[in-house]
Every structure is written in structure tokens, then in C-alpha cells.
Design goal:
heterodimer, A: 109 residues, alpha+beta, Arc Repressor Mutant, subunit A, three-stranded antiparallel β-sheet, 5 helices, 3 strands, B: 239 residues, mainly alpha, four-stranded parallel β-sheet, 6 helices, 28% helix, Metal_resp_DNA-bind_regulator (chain A), DNA-binding transcriptional regulator, PadR family (chain A)
Chain lengths: 109, 239
């Protein structure tokens, strides 16, 4: 994973939106999210556990997602995250803002 | 190997107070890391490489601690245990230990003290509406002159707790044991004491006419005083 600081900050700034997008497709637990982000970026981007959980806890505090404990694979339990209506709206707002910014930057850079 | 990962997390989390939210976070991280480790192993990584890659995926934990329950951190960091006149509304204070703490004249509406150890702490003249004290130890604590509407006390320890001049109207105090608990001049309209146990409690100038005592157990003196304050004591057992 070769990336400079600017790229990594730029990507990290969109962690919330990346997570919301994944949750739109269904409830997920922490490691699910990390794996999907790695896979969907064609192995080019890897989120740290800490970055993901700080985003999950923040989104939960803001009411964009909620969580519940469910069964895990080896007898343990896992916390699953669900997107709320507020979270859906936040996702679409963020996505639109990004599309707009991208259009402007493509013209200017 | 799970032990090794667990030890690593223990060390990473050691600077932070073990509140429920921190414990849960550790549990989430632990299952994630176990899964990552076994995946790496099944892809042919040797133990050492798999362990180091697993640990490397954690990142900076302080980043998460900042986003969970900021106020929990504040409570730990304040060296003097005096939170009087503080706005602590809707705070996550689950599992905190504050002996002899002062929360006087504070606005604590909706805060969650579940499983906390609050022995001898003082909450004088505070707004404790909708506060959750489930499973916490309030022995010797002063909850005098408090608003307690909607507060929850499931499985609390209330030995010698002082509720003088507080409004306990509508509060559910079922199945609790009151040993030396002080209820002087408190209000009890619709308060429920079902199956509660009363021993050596202090009840001067309190009106229990509209409180519910079904299935309660109490000593003779308590029974006599309650009867004097016109409480309905049908279904009470005297010991």
C-alpha cells in the first residue's frame, strides 16, 4: 500500500461515508467492514481498526447508526451495526457533496 | 495465540478506565483480531508474521477512546472528586468508581451510572431525572433534595442511603432492600416498593399514603411508623 500523507488524509476524511455505504447493503460487524473496504478498493486501501471504530462510535453517537450484539462464529458474540434513516440521509448528502467537489477539482487541477 | 493478542490489547488499553464501553470495545477488537489472525494463518502465514500483521492492523487506540464517552474520560481525569454544579446531562458513566464524590447541585438528567460504585457520594440538590443507577452501590450516598422522576434503581445497594427531602414520586423501588435508608420528608406519590425489605429505616414527616407496598417485608418499628403515616400495608409481612 503505497500512498503519501495527503492521499491517506483525503481518504480517511471519508471513512464515515465509506462505512455508511457498506451498511446500506445490510448489517455488518467490525471485521466485515474492514475486509469489505480492503476488497472493494481492490486491495489498495486498508482501514485501521482504530480509525474504523472511532468512526463507528461517532456515527452511533450522532444517531446515524445503531448497534446490537449478535452471535459470532466461535461461540463468542459480535456487535453488529445498522444504518438508521438519519444515516441514510447523511450518506446521500455526503455522496452529493463529494460528487460536487470532484467535479470542481477535475476542472481546476 | 489468543492469549498473546489479549495481552497486547490489555497493554494498549491499560491507560484507560475500565468502563463498560471500553470493555465492550476491547471485546469487539479481540474478536476482529482473532478472525484476522486465523485468516492470515489459513493463507499460509507463519505464527510470528500473522501476529505482527494482526497487531499492525489496530492503529492508534487513543483515537477511538476519544470518540467514546468523552465525559467518562473527564471524570477519570479530574483529580479532585468534585463535580458540583456540573452539567453532566446524558453522560455515559457506566461502571465508574467514585467514593465520596461530590455531584451537588448538578444537572445529571438522563445519565447512566449502571454498575457504578458511588459509596458515600453526595448528590445533594441535583436533578437526577431519568438517571440509571441499575446495579450500582449507593450505600451511604446522599440523594437529598433531588428530583428523581423516572430514575431507575434496579438491583441497587441502598444501605444508609439518604433520600431526605427528595421527590421519589412514581419511582419503582421494587425488590430492593433498605437497611438504614433515610426517607425523612420525602414524597412518595405512586412510588412502588413491591417485595422490598425494610430494616431500621428513617421515615419522619413522609407521606406514604399513595405508595405501594405489596409483598414488602419490614421490621415492627417501620411498620408502626408507616401505619402512622397512613400507608396501605395490606400484603406486608412484619418480621
Amino acid at each position: 500500500m503505497e500512498e503519501n500523507k495527503m492521499t491517506s488524509d483525503l481518504l480517511r476524511g471519508h471513512t464515515d461515508t465509506m462505512i455508511l455505504k457498506l451498511l446500506l447493503a445490510g448489517d455488518k460487524y467490525g471485521y466485515d467492514i474492514l475486509k469489505l473496504i480492503h476488497q472493494n478498493s481492490e486491495n489498495e486501501y486498508e482501514l485501521k481498526e482504530a480509525t474504523m471504530y472511532s468512526s463507528l462510535k461517532r456515527l452511533e453517537n450522532d444517531g446515524c447508526i445503531s448497534s446490537y450484539w449478535g452471535d459470532g462464529s466461535q461461540g463468542g458474540r459480535r456487535r453488529y451495526y445498522t444504518i438508521t434513516d438519519k444515516g441514510k440521509k447523511t450518506y446521500f448528502d455526503n455522496k452529493n457533496n463529494w460528487e460536487y467537489a470532484k467535479r470542481i477539482l477535475d476542472k481546476l487541477l | 495465540m489468543n492469549d498473546k493478542i489479549n495481552k497486547y490489547l490489555e497493554q494498549v488499553f491499560s491507560p484507560y478506565e475500565d468502563t463498560d464501553s471500553v470493555k465492550e470495545l476491547r471485546e469487539e477488537l479481540m474478536t476482529d483480531l482473532q478472525e484476522k489472525y486465523s485468516e492470515l494463518r489459513s493463507q499460509g502465514c507463519d505464527e510470528e508474521t500473522a501476529y505482527h500483521q494482526t497487531i499492525a492492523s489496530v492503529g492508534n487506540v487513543s483515537e477511538i477512546i476519544e470518540s467514546i464517552a468523552e465525559k467518562t474520560k473527564t471524570v477519570k481525569q479530574m483529580s479532585q472528586r468534585d463535580f458540583s454544579q456540573t452539567d453532566l446531562r446524558n453522560s455515559d458513566l457506566k461502571g465508574v468508581t467514585v467514593h465520596d464524590g461530590k455531584f451537588n447541585e448538578s444537572d445529571m438528567r438522563g445519565s447512566d451510572f449502571s454498575g457504578s460504585d458511588l459509596r458515600n457520594s453526595s448528590f445533594r440538590a441535583s436533578d437526577l431525572s431519568d438517571v440509571i443507577f441499575d446495579g450500582s452501590d449507593l450505600s451511604g450516598a446522599k440523594l437529598s433534595m433531588c428530583a428523581l422522576k423516572g430514575a431507575s434503581f434496579i438491583n441497587c445497594l441502598l444501605n444508609g442511603t439518604d433520600f431526605s427531602h427528595s421527590d421519589l414520586s412514581g419511582v419503582c423501588l421494587d425488590n430492593l432492600t433498605f437497611d438504614g435508608t433515610i426517607f425523612n420528608c420525602s414524597s412518595f406519590i405512586g412510588t412502588s416498593f413491591k417485595n422490598a425489605v425494610f430494616r431500621n429505616v428513617f421515615i419522619k414527616h413522609a407521606d406514604f399514603k399513595k405508595a405501594v407496598f405489596d409483598g414488602a417485608t419490614m421490621d415492627k418499628l417501620t411498620y408502626a411508623v408507616l401505619k402512622g403515616s397512613r400507608a396501605n400495608l395490606a400484603g406486608v409481612t412484619v418480621i
